[in-house]
Amino acid sequence: MQFNEEIILKGLNLANFELKTHQLIDSTNDECKRISSNKDILVVTADKQTKGKGRKGKKWHSPEGNISLSIAFADREFDVPISIATGILVKDALTEVFNLDSIKLKWPNDLVFEKKKIGGILVEKEVFSNYTKAIVGIGINLELDKKESWWGDFGDLNGKNLRDKIINKILVKFEALFRDGLNDWKNLWNQSCIHNDAIISVARNDEIIKGKYLGINDSGELLLEKKIGEIISFSSGEVSIKGIYNK
In this predicted structure, what is the pLDDT of residue 129? Predict the structure, then answer.
């Protein structure tokens, strides 16, 4: 499935972006590590990945026609953690393209539709002698070749034919993030969070901790009330919520 670069780059300041499209690649994140760009933002996208990457070394299934997208730039200080910002921006892009208000976020980096995972985000950093490169990987299931109980897609909404438009929406929102930052991001996150005020379980190392989700702090860490007056923060962990992903 070919990309339409004109649609992908529509409305962007092309002085800021370099776009690389591939039909087949091992990993868009790894490609961002291998190459350099004289533009502020390097964008790599592929029709299919053979070694797509998820969090904690997990493999991300990336069949043809879905979104495998990586955005690389010199690391900088934002007013919002980049993984949190990416979740908000991608969720908003999908909401606008599909005209849906039911797409949600699950901490720390899952995109959820109809209680199934339809996307994820992976942030990596490469440290060089004179700068640090941040790489934001985004995977979105538009139409899967096989159905799983915990994976969802947008196949019933003609998602594959909207792929270029979705990528464009994401890039337009990233450009605005670079230019303007993201105001009120904690409220934006909580408004989109599928486990807002819910009782959740967080798996960290060999421990599972259960409590009420209270939101996120200024660092994007999850806040959980284990019992009245005892609040625990998590910078990493796997969140489980009853009824989501068939759990």
Answer: 84
